[in-house]
Design brief:
By secondary structure, this protein is an alpha/beta fold. It has a single domain (about 1-165), classed as 3-Layer(aba) Sandwich (Dihydrofolate Reductase, subunit A). The chain contains 4 helices and 10 strands; from the N terminus they run ββαβαββαβαββββ. It has helices at about 25-35, 45-50, 85-90, 105-110, and strands spanning about 1-10, 15, 40-45, 60-65, 75-80, 95-100, 120-125, 130-135, 140-150, 160-165. Helix 2 (about 45-50) links the parallel strand 3 and strand 4 (about 60-65). It starts with a strand and ends with a strand. The model has no long low-confidence stretch (mean pLDDT about 95).
Length: about 170
C-alpha cells in the first residue's frame, strides 16, 4: 500500500487559519476529489470538523478520523486513536493508496515518523497569514515526479501548481 498525503500550501507554508482554508481554488478542490475518490482518507478530528457539515463524511471515501478522545464518535466514519492504527486499518482493508488529508499536526507526525511514500502538493503562489503550517520538506528525501502550473483566472486569485513527489528510496 502507498501512503500518500495531499495538501495545498502557500509559499510561506501556511495551510489554514482559524480551522479554515485560506483560499478558494475550485480546480484544487476537483483535484483533491479526483485523487482521493474511492480511497481511505485519514484526517485529524479538528480538520474533519472544519469540513462543512453537509459534506461530512466525504462521500465515496472511507473516512478515518484521528482523535485522542476515546469517546469521540462520528456517524459514517472509522475513529482511530493513532496514526499507525489508522494506517493499519486501511492496509488490512486492502487499500492500494491511502491519503492523509490533514491537518497540520497529522502531516507533521506522518513526515517525522517516515510514514509517507508520496506527496500531492498544490503550491499556491502567494503568502498567507495562517495559524497552521505544513512542515518544511527535506528536498534531499523527495523527488518531484510531476508539476503542472495553473495561471490565475476569474475563479483563482493566485497562480498555483499541482506537484507530485515520490520518496527517494
Amino acid at each position: 500500500m502507498i501512503t500518500s498525503l495531499i495538501v495545498a500550501v502557500a509559499k510561506n507554508y501556511a495551510i489554514g487559519k482559524d480551522n479554515n482554508l485560506l483560499w478558494h481554488l475550485p480546480n484544487d478542490m476537483k483535484y483533491f476529489k479526483e485523487k482521493t475518490l474511492d480511497h481511505h482518507i485519514i484526517t485529524g478530528r479538528k480538520n474533519y470538523i472544519s469540513i462543512p457539515e453537509r459534506f461530512r463524511p466525504l462521500v465515496n471515501r472511507t473516512n478515518i478520523v484521528l482523535s485522542r478522545n476515546t469517546s469521540f464518535t462520528e456517524e459514517g466514519c472509522i475513529v482511530k486513536h493513532s496514526l499507525e492504527a489508522a494506517i493499519a486499518y486501511a492496509k488490512d482493508a486492502g487499500e492500494t493508496e491511502l491519503f492523509i488529508i490533514g491537518g497540520g499536526e497529522i502531516y507533521k507526525e506522518a513526515l517525522e515518523s517516515n510514514l509517507i511514500d508520496k506527496m500531492y502538493i498544490t503550491h499556491v503562489d502567494s503568502d498567507y497569514e495562517g495559524d497552521t503550517f505544513f512542515p518544511e520538506v527535506d528536498k534531499t528525501v523527495w523527488n518531484k515526479q510531476f508539476e503542472l502550473s495553473i495561471a490565475e483566472d476569474e475563479k483563482h486569485a493566485h497562480p498555483f501548481s499541482f506537484a507530485v513527489y515520490n520518496k527517494i528510496k
